[in-house]
Design goal:
The protein is an alpha/beta fold. The protein is built from 15 helices and eight strands. The strands form two sheets. Strands 1, 4, 5, 6, 7 and 8 form a six-stranded mixed sheet that branches. The termini are far apart.
Length: about 425
Amino acid sequence: MSESPASGPPPQIPAQPTAPRPPAPRPPATTLRQRLAELRGPSVAPHPLDARALAALAANPGCRRRALLDGAGVDKAAVATALGSPAPFGQSQFALVRGNAFEAKVKADGGTELLRLLFERLGAGADAPGEAVLPDLTAAGPEGRTARTALALREATASDGWTLLDHPMLALEVAGSPVYLEPDAVVVHPDGTWTVVEIKSFPMIDASADAAKVGAAARQSAVYVLALERIASVTEGAQVGHRVLLVCPKDFSNLPTASVVDVRKQRAVTRRQLTRLTRIEDIAAALPDGATFDPGCTRQELGTAVEAVPAAYAPECLSACELAFHCRARSRAEGAVETLGRGVHGELGGLTTVAGVLAAASGKEGDPADPTVAALRRAAALRAEALETAEALETAEALETAEALETADGGARCR
């Protein structure tokens, strides 16, 4: 008789060891918006970044200081005043009132005069505008106004008529942070073309205006064109015009006149420069703990925070940045060649200080095989030769004058 198997519970299969779960990624301690609010100051409202400031930032993409301060909404004028280097420029209250009054005149009666000027300059191939649609763009906050503007632009493009958007709100990402822009007006043509309208209070005399002011308006309008292109890329039938309507007072009157400005060059330059900007979170991450740009803190704390962010000063900054006079004083104190201008800085290559340039020119420092050093020494030799020649000529002229005086004096004695 065979043996029966032993009775009892079935054998237990050992559990397979499970791999430990990877720890869940920790969310960042603070978001970028919170970090920028800390840099700005807990009780300081963000200073809006307009298209004019954005165009100036694009013209100097290497300046991390301006990129961070503008991205954080810091009032650079208040910071410059707290540091003891206020910027002696800005638009006067009288100019603001005059500009607002002129803009209201241009947009009166539903924008009839504005549309007439636009149709005369850019309305080829379309019917003359009668009453244009003026959509309501009011919404809560800049994000809401931006979304309402995008919706109005899509509706206007699909309507096959003339639409005037008064002070729309546009958004553009700059160095990883959204920037909200507000052009004077945008007109949607029946064929789906979007035209930026820039209204300025400087005069247009004999159909011509100040070239520097027109150039600044073109750079500012190019920023609006870039922002509109983001919306047009997701709007069927939309096309952003690269010709901007510039409206100014005619001659010495208050009557509006207009001119067409092609901003394709300014758009391309601005777009390229904005892509070169370092992301704001990367700049902010390099700051020491506790750094703040609150104008209410002590001058020493504010100066330490400002100097912790690298700047790229150039003389052109004096007309575009509120901190330019502070940066110029620091550059002069350090003897930096940036104070001489971008052109000179570029020609000097690796020489970064004025003292180093003078030492290289005199032969005390520098590699003679370096083309920059060789050019400086050649220029110094030519200068020394010119000075010696001038000194010799001056000595010869002095001797001739002395001999002539002696001769004249001797003749007078004989008589």
